[in-house]
Amino acid sequence: MINVTIDNKQIQVPEGTTILKAARMAGIHIPTLCYFELAGMKFENKPGGCRVCVVEVVKDFNGRPRRNLAPACATDCVEGMEVLTHSARVINARRTVVELILSDHPTDCLTCAKSGNCELQSLAQYLGIREIPFKGEQSHYRQDMSPSIVRDMDKCVMCRRCENMCNNIQTVGALSAINRGFSAVVAPAFEQDLVDSPCVMCGQCVQVCPVGALSEVDDTRNVMAAINNPKKTVIVNTAPATRVALGEEFGMPAGTIVTGQMAAALRRLGFDYVFDTDFTADLTIMEEGTELLGRIKKYMAGDKSVRLPILTSCCPGWVNFFEHNFPDMLDVPSTAKSPMQMFGAVAKNYWADKMGIKREDLVVVSIMPCLAKKYESKRKEFYKDGNPDIDYVLTTRELARLIKQFNLNLKDMPSEDYDDPLGESTGAAVIFGATGGVIEAATRTAYEVFTGKQCPKIDFTELRGMEGIRDAWVDFDGTPIHIGIAHGLSNARKLLERVREGKEQFHAIEVMACPGGCVGGAGQPYHHGNSEIIKKRTEAIYREDAGKPIRKSHENPSIIKLYKEYLGEPCGHLSHELLHTHYFDKSEHVEISE
Amino acid sequence: MAVIKLSESKINFIKDVCKSYGNKPGEVINVLHKVQGEFGYLPAEVQELVAKELGIPVSRVYGIVSFYSFFTMTPKGEYPISVCLGTACYVRGAEKVLDELKRQLGINVGEVTPDGKFSLTCLRCVGACGLAPVIEVGEKVYGRMTPDRVKDVLAEYR
Fold it and tell me: In which band, very low, low, confident or very high, does the pLDDT at B1 lie, cut at 50, 70 and 90?
């Protein structure tokens, strides 16, 4: 331990602690911009580039003051160090730094997507900046709009959080700092559009971007137009993870469950029917679980052509990732569509027929914690005669904005139920929202179908947790089943490479692209690096599960009815047509030209 | 599936260079240096293949190519022209020489004439400050350049 004095406060910190962390331990706030940490997720961005966190070292290791101000995020404490975080010199320098950043930043805060959530805006406020004394050239870049993400690089402050996230946590490698000096910016190779790059649309770059350079595509106006059109029947489905995060946008503490209030608010927005993606999460378990058991049984019968492990396919960021990076393994993932796309298929076929609504008059909206879902809904294979199974995807944040526009406060909403039949769900479905949840839900059902016996337990706590890569053996009444779990795509890559090289064998692997799973999705309220928020949401997911009267997907009465009335059996003919999909090789191939 | 199209000889050359550096990601600058030495420039397909061989994202390769002024994505002309804009050349009127070159060739710095004959780049000091201002055409150095002499110099190569 070493002794340091920060703002006349003496503290002891372990060796190797930065001034910034030491100050935080002492409860002293040092403003930052490029610095970003997601504690417990192995993500720390500290390029030391913005210089907002500079401090004055009045006594350095040699007993003398340090001549230059030091960046607190990238300077380690030394024994006997004395630091001032808010001296007149520091405040002056900090203000100049922010004024310089603002001199090359558009001042369209009024209409900026990040307004109210922008860390640069907060800094300017914090430092009391009322004018920008530096005038000069401004950098201009082409706007890039993918189905999920909008890039407006005029607003980029070169904090490089997105680059770090894209390359180190997700190992997607779509973004890199390019050019130099004034024209330096973060972009895909050759400044191509994101859709043409290896981007998987996970949107974690948007989640960490401090300013409006990266934001989600806004579909709220399209949804309102559909609701305003009297010819259209507009229905909505809500993903598991949205119900444990939406409350944050209304000042509720992280981890507040607002399922009933969300359903009530959606009705007041004018949706004709309020359904739940959880219903089709249960359906996913029926299809994916049956597929898994089919493969295991064949394998155990000696059929070596069977591909194990089965990989979950609920997460569209993950699907994009393996299409780009594991083209040799496209037959390994489950062919089951994601719960959202299953919802679209069931709604526009089974339900529309049942209600006598024409496909083109039915608009299906999804509320998702995710940006990749916007892209997924636009995939051609999920269209029929030019009409998509899912018309629009709104993120949790977009839904919050709509609710506020309607002068509604979630806090005042009564708790209402979802509509039947596409609204009934089990505890197994809600845990789809957290890492380990999909495979736990599958285990609850697969155990009983495989053994024909009642499962001795419901909570498979060995599958839960926050470790990036986890594995567990689950005893299927004498048959040991090896299950792997990864969240964050770098972890998924590591696990898949181990499988590809034959170093480890699994029966099933669950992957979620975002750290923490969907609870940490890019469409969720901004967490600004507070990983406690993600943990609180996860706890809420498991609380919601525990409170459900039915907690196994195959016991959902509406699911049983759906198979009886319409689908026949899991993985049957109609299921294959409506609920399963196929994957594409999106990797780069070298070809000889003349 | 995206396709990278290159001639067989180029593919083999790039693969050999990468191999000679052990296909190590850390050798990317050395690899690019060698490859540009052979092809004269680094088009997108070449960067894609280098990235693939070294197992790094192509965005990283492009980040490096676009950062270092030595690397270029534009092919060089048959006679690459470099104008020295070092301090000595600059104060003795290098910019006027450059402007005249641009005017007569009809191209900007970093571009190639449509017939592929000339390309134009700038550099900082060739170590011949006594001859300032200096331009190079290929390996040949022309000292004490003036805008008036540009026409004659170009005529030698036309």
Answer: low
Measured distance CA(A358)–CA(A353) in Å, rounded:
8
Token digits of residue A84:
């001032």
Contact A593 B62 (CB under 8 A): no
Across chain A, which distance is largest between two alpha carbons, in Å? 83
d(CA A581, CA A290): 15
Mean pLDDT of chain A: 96
The yes-or-no verdict on residue A227 having pLDDT over 70 is yes
B 3-22 residues with CB below 8 A of A?
3-8, 11
Structure confidence by residue, pLDDT tens digits, A47-84: 999 999 999 999 999 999 999 999 999 999 999 999 99
pLDDT, residue A40, reads: 83
Residues 6+ apart with CB under 8 A from B52: A588, A590, B4, B58
CB of A485 closer than 8 Å to CB of A436: yes
B112 in contact with A at a CB cutoff of 8 Å?
A: no
Size of interface A-B (CB pairs under 8 A): 79
> CB of A181 within 8 Å of any CB in chain B?
no
Q: Are strands A508-512 and A479-487 parallel, antiparallel or unpaired?
A: parallel
CA dihedral A410, A416, A417, A418 (to 10 degrees): -50
Tokens of A91: 């405040």
Q: How confident is the model at residue B3 (pLDDT cuts 50, 70, 90)?
A: confident
Would you state the pLDDT for residue A592? Answer: 85
Contact between chains at A197 and B59 (C-beta distance less than 8 A):
yes
Q: Hey, are the CB atoms on B5 and A190 less than 8 Å from each other?
A: no
The answer to whether residues A212 and A114 touch, using CB atoms and an 8 Å cutoff, is yes
Residue A64 has what pLDDT?
96
Q: Which residues fall within 8 angstroms of residue A255, CB to CB, at 6 or more apart?
A: A244, A536, A537, A539, A540
- Comparing CA positions, the residue from A488, A518, A209, A244 lying closest to residue A371 is A518
Q: Which of B6, B47, B58 sits opposite A590 (nearest CB)?
A: B6
The CA-based dihedral angle spanning residues B88, B93, B94, B95, taken in that order and rounded to the nearest 10 degrees: 130
- For chain A, percent of residues with pLDDT exceeding 70: 100
B142, B136 contact by CB (below 8 A): yes
Q: Which two tokens stand for residue A83?
A: 């630091």
Q: Which of A172, A177, A197 sits opposite B63 (nearest CB)?
A: A177
Confidence (pLDDT) at A326: 95
Give this complex's ipTM: 0.91
For A583, the closest chain B residue by CA position comes to B1
The two structure tokens encoding residue A142: 């082409």
- Preferred mutation among B32, B54, B59, B68 to probe A, highest tally of A CBs within 10 A: B59
> pLDDT for A302-355, tens place per residue?
888 888 899 999 999 999 999 999 999 999 999 999 999 999 999 999 999 999
Element (H, E) at A177: strand A176-178
Distance from CA of B152 to the nearest CA of A (A): 36
Nearest-5° angle of CA A28, CA A29, CA A34? 140
Q: Cα distance from A35 to chain B (closest Cα, Å)?
A: 21
In the structure encoding, which two tokens stand for residue A233, read together? 């029947």
Put simply, the answer to whether A175 touches B62 (Cβ < 8 Å) is: no
pLDDT for the residue numbered B139:
85
Q: Does A179 touch chain B (CB under 8 A)?
A: yes
pTM here is 0.92
Q: Which residue has the tokens 């305003």?
A: A228
Task: Of B98, B102, B101, B88, give the one whose Cα is nearest residue B132.
Answer: B88
Give the type of residue at A337: K
pLDDT at A594 over 70: no
